[in-house]
Amino acid sequence: MADYKKSEKMKSWRRIYEQAIDYWQVLRYQKHPKHSSIYYNRLQLSVLCIYPNKEERRSSIRRIWHKFILVHIVTFSSTLLCALPESSDNIVSLGQDLLWIIGTFYLIFKWHFLYFCADNMDEVIDEIDKCHRELKNERTANEIRAQQRYLFLVESTLGLGWHIGVAMFNILAISQPIWTKQKLPFHAVYPFEWHDPEKHPFAHVFVYIYQCFVLNYNMTCILYTDLLSAHIFTQLGCNLKIMCLELQGLSKLSRKNEQLFRQELYRLVEFHQRIISLVDRVNKVFYAPMIMQMAAAFLLVSLSTFVSLVARHDPTVAARFVIFMILSFLHLSYWCVAGDMVTEQSQKVALAAYDVYKWSPYKPEIQRDVMFVMQRAQLPLSMAASPFPPFNLFSYMAILKQCYSILTVLLESLD
C-alpha cells in the first residue's frame, strides 16, 4: 500500500501511460516489470476519478465527482428507457435500444461495485502485486521472471487491442447520425423535446456532445475495470504456474540435505496456501460482478447476434450489430479463458508435487507433507460465484450452446 500512496502523488498525466513505459522497458530491454498489470489498471481508474477507495474519498472534490457520475448514469439510462416505446414497431430499432439499455445497467452495476468494494479490491491487488515483486529462489528465479515478463507483455498487448476495439466502437457509435437516419448516437427522449434538432437545434447539439462524453468516458472506465478484473484471474494462474516451477526446482535438491529440503517445502506450502486464500477472497469480492458478467454477456451475445441476422439484408445496419456481437463475444471469451487458466494451473500443481514426492528424502514427515500438498492440489481451484458455473472453457461452451438454442427459437418464430 505504501507504493500505491507514493504513486498517488505522481502527476495524473504520467500515471495514465505508466504501464506503456514499463511495457516498452520489458519488451525492448528485457527488464522485469515494476508492477503487475492490475496495479497499473488501478492507477488508470484513479486518474479517471472512478476508483473511490478510502484514499480517493478523502478528497471532497472526488466525492462530489463520484456522486455526479452516479447521477448522470442514472439520468442517461432513464432517457434510453423513455425512448423504448418509440421502437416497439421495429424489431431492429428495438434490439438496438435493448442492447444499449443492458449495457447501461451493466455500467451502473459496475459503478456500484467499485463504489462499495474498492477497499476490498485494494487488498487483493496489493497482495497479488506483492507476490509479483517478491524475491524468488535462485534455482528458479530466471524461469519465474521470464514467466512474469511474458504474462505482463501478453496482458499489456491484449489491453492495447481492447483499446483499439473500444475506440473503433466509439467512433462507429458517435458517427451514426452521419450515415444513418438516427439523429443522436443513442436513441433517447429528453424533456421539452431537446433531442429534436428542428425544434431545439442548440439543445440538440448539447445533447449530442453530452452523449459523446458519456459514451467515451464510461466505455474507458468499463475497459479498465474489466481488464483489472480479468487480469486478477490471469495473475492467480501465473502464481500457480510459479508454484509448479518452484516444486520442479525443489525436486532437483539433493535428498541428503533434509534440512534445506524441509525448509523449502514449508515455504512452498505457505505460498500455496496464500494462493488458495487469494482465490477464495477474489471469489468473495467479485461474487456479484461474476454473476452480472455471465448474465450480461449471455444477453448481449444472444441479442446482438439475433438483430444482426434480422438486419442482414441491410449491411450498414447489420455492421453495427456485428461489431457489437464480436466485442461481446470476445469479452466473454476473455473472462472464461482467464478463469480456465486458474483451474488448469491448479491441477498441474498436483503433478508437480508428485514429482517432488518421488525425489523427496526418505523421511515420513517430509513425505507426508508432500502428500498433503498433492491432496489439496487435486481439488482444482476455480473462479466461480456459486451456484453459477465457474468461468472456464466448459462454461464458455455451455453459454454459447444456450445462445445458439435461443437464437434458433427466435429466428423460427420470425419465419
Keywords:
mainly alpha; 415 residues; 78% helix; single chain
Overall description:
- It is a single chain.
- This protein is mainly alpha-helical.
- It contains 14 helices and no strands.
- Helix 11 (287-310) runs antiparallel to helix 12 (315-359) and helix 11 packs parallel to helix 14 (393-414).
- Residues 5-11 have low confidence and may be disordered.
Question: How many H/I helices?
Answer: 14
> What percent of residues are in strands?
under 5%
Mean pLDDT: 85
Rg over CA atoms? 25 Å
Number of DSSP strand runs: 0
What is the quaternary state of this protein?
A: single chain
Q: Helix content range of the residues, please? A: over 70%
SSE order in H/E notation? HHHHHHHHHHHHHH
Shape: elongated
Distance between the termini: 59 Å
Going by helix content, strand content and strand pairing, the class is mainly alpha
Low-confidence stretches: 5-11
Reported for the largest beta sheet, the result is: none
Topology of helices and strands:
Elements: H1 2-8, H2 12-15, H3 18-29, H4 37-47, H5 60-83, H6 91-133, H7 141-174, H8 176-179, H9 201-250, H10 258-285, H11 287-310, H12 315-359, H13 364-377, H14 393-414
Question: What's this entry about, in short?
Answer:
The chain is mostly helical and 415 residues long. Helices cover 78% and strands 0% of the residues.
